[in-house]
Amino acid sequence: MPRAVTPKAAKPKKNTKRSPKRPNEKVHLQFTVNGELAEVAFLPHHTLLEVLREDMGLTGTKHGCELGECGACTVIVDGKPVLSCLMLALHAEGREIETIEGMADANGVLHPLQEAFAELGAAQCGYCTPGVLLSAKKLLDHTPRPSLIQIKEALAGNICRCTGYIKIYEAVELAAARAAGEKAEPRKESVYGY
Ligand code: FES
Ligand code: FES
Q1: Helix (H) or strand (E) holding 77
Q2: Atom number in ligand 1 closest to CA 74
Q3: Which of 27, 116, 134, 143 could in theory staple to 174 by disulfide, Cβ–Cβ 3.0 to 4.6 A?
Q4: Which residues line ligand 2 (CB under 6 A)?
Q5: Domain boundaries, the chain
């Protein structure tokens, strides 16, 4: 069975240069966000979450517990889901980062997962939704037709206080079926018994 991919703290990559001499001195680093090279100046103790939201204005990545527990801050770093509240932005140098702002295509056409979430009402307050969508996207990238168990495992690090998860799981199933070329429609009633 393919290994579940659950958001976790990224391992620090090599820390190259441009380390600040004082803690309040900004560092300038480059990394790629949603396919575009960005050069960003930020305080060295700031997390990737803070830099994305506060320095780059990418507020789709949500600020939840800041403790690595809720998954609201999930982004994709070098192809893996990562909790951006636990990753120092310094460690993002040279990496490829995907955020929810890059999930629709350049023309604004939603990703099939976003379509399915909207169609099924798989979000209520929506605070967890960017992180859930990115975790689900990574699952489907590696496991195009996941089982329910695999979906649950892949989303185990993303906490939702509103939906009860059933619509979320069904939306991932629906998007996977459609991506596989099936003419799938939303279920008339939940197969999970509640
Ligand atoms: S804000 Fe990062 S895990 Fe909750
Ligand atoms: S939709 Fe509200 S926390 Fe998930």
Answers
A1: strand 74-77
A2: 2
A3: 116
A4: 123-129, 160-163
A5: 27-102, 112-179
Mean pLDDT, 10 residues at a time, the chain of 194 residues: 52 54 85 97 96 97 97 97 97 98 95 96 97 98 96 97 95 95 78 56
Given ligand 1 and candidates 46, 59, 66, 155, which is best to mutate, with the most ligand atoms within 8 Å of its CB? 66
Atom of ligand 2 nearest to the CA of 123: 1
Closest ligand to 71 CA?
A: 1
Give the contacts of 118 (CB within 8 A, at least 6 positions apart): 110
Architecture of domain 112-179: Orthogonal Bundle (1.10)
**Residue 69 CA, closest ligand 1 atom number:** 3
The CATH T-level fold of domain 27-102 is Ubiquitin-like (UB roll) (3.10.20)
